[in-house]
Design brief:
about 250 residues, alpha/beta, binds nicotinamide-adenine-dinucleotide
Length: about 250
């Protein structure tokens, strides 16, 4: 308990799935939470739940593909709460028309990059100066099993997540002197509502049978990833930076 006592954390994509589970866990561990999403009703509901349960959270609308919206949200949280210690760049996912590169509309590539790579890139840019003022911090980016092994079906998304891996390592180097750690979680298939829907539709950008069978421990739940995000956010991981941590039920080892 209280592993994030006194910490101010921002979670993007906090209205659903892994982001929601992590925000709720971070709040239980004492963090003050700034929640970012585009699903305002669900985001307000998560903030309401945290506040009712004795935590402290505020929700703000920001599309992570928009530098202006992200900058505004991060500045408001930092001023309201008195700084930023943790940034969890969680918002992401395969965009609707993503597919094999020979088949997908080319403008979908920009959407995939905007959501999955530009978002974390600019969030880091706006949050790092606030972390520096606090004497350090922890950034958690979100890669994917698709950035660790060869897969097909969502080539824009996969390329963007590969960028997240290299961005994480580069930033770890640059931020270590500022005592800011930068790591990434690479989830395997996690049964969020979005992923369940893709699987029900037989959509290629969700896990296919081959991918499902790789998971030695079965498919995951958001609550399987949230404690790993907590570990990376907390001082328990104080000597870890620049790492890409697969949280995938053994899928990338199989
Ligand atoms: N679920 C999986 O199987 C899986 C596997 C590998 C990686 N991931 C990654 O984990 C992260 C979370 O995935 P999830 O399955 O929990 O997703 P999810 O779809 O359940 O939740 C994503 C949240 O992000 C929000 N969001 C979407 N676009 C946004 C935008 N432009 N700006 C701000 N918020 C936005 C959504 O409204 C939603 O609340 C993503 O980065 C995803 O790529 C998930």
């Amino acid at each position: 308990m209280n592993r994030l006592e006194g910490k101010i954390a921002i979670v993007t994509g906090a209205s659903a799935g892994i982001g929601k589970a992590s925000a709720i866990l971070f709040a239980k561990e004492g963090a003050v939470l700034g929640l970012v999403d585009i699903d305002d009703a669900a985001g307000e509901a998560v903030a309401g739940q945290i506040n009712r349960e004795g935590g402290k959270a505020r929700y703000l609308h920001a599309d992570v593909a928009s530098a202006d919206e992200l900058e505004t949200a991060i500045n408001v949280f930092a001023k309201d709460f008195g700084g930023i210690d943790v940034l969890y760049n969680n918002a992401g996912g395969a965009t609707p028309r993503d597919a094999h590169l020979l088949e997908m509309p080319l403008d979908e590539f920009d959407r995939a990059i905007g959501l999955n790579l530009f978002g974390p890139f600019v969030a880091c840019r706006f949050a790092i100066p606030y972390m520096q003022e606090r004497g350090g911090g922890s950034i958690i980016n979100t890669a994917s099993i698709r950035s660790m092994i060869g897969t097909s079906g969502a080539d824009g998304y996969t390329a963007a997540k590969g960028g997240v891996v290299t961005l994480t390592r580069a930033l770890a180097l640059q931020c270590a002197p500022k005592r800011i750690r930068v790591n990434a979680i690479a989830p395997g298939a996690v049964l969020t509502e979005r992923v369940r829907a893709l699987m029900d539709q037989g959509n290629d950008s969700g896990p296919d049978e081959k991918m499902v069978n790789r998971h030695l421990l079965g498919l995951g739940e958001p609550e399987d990833v949230a404690p790993v995000a907590l570990f990376l956010a907390s001082d328990d991981s104080r000597w870890i930076t620049g790492q890409i941590l697969p949280v995938d039920g053994g899928a990338s080892a199989n």
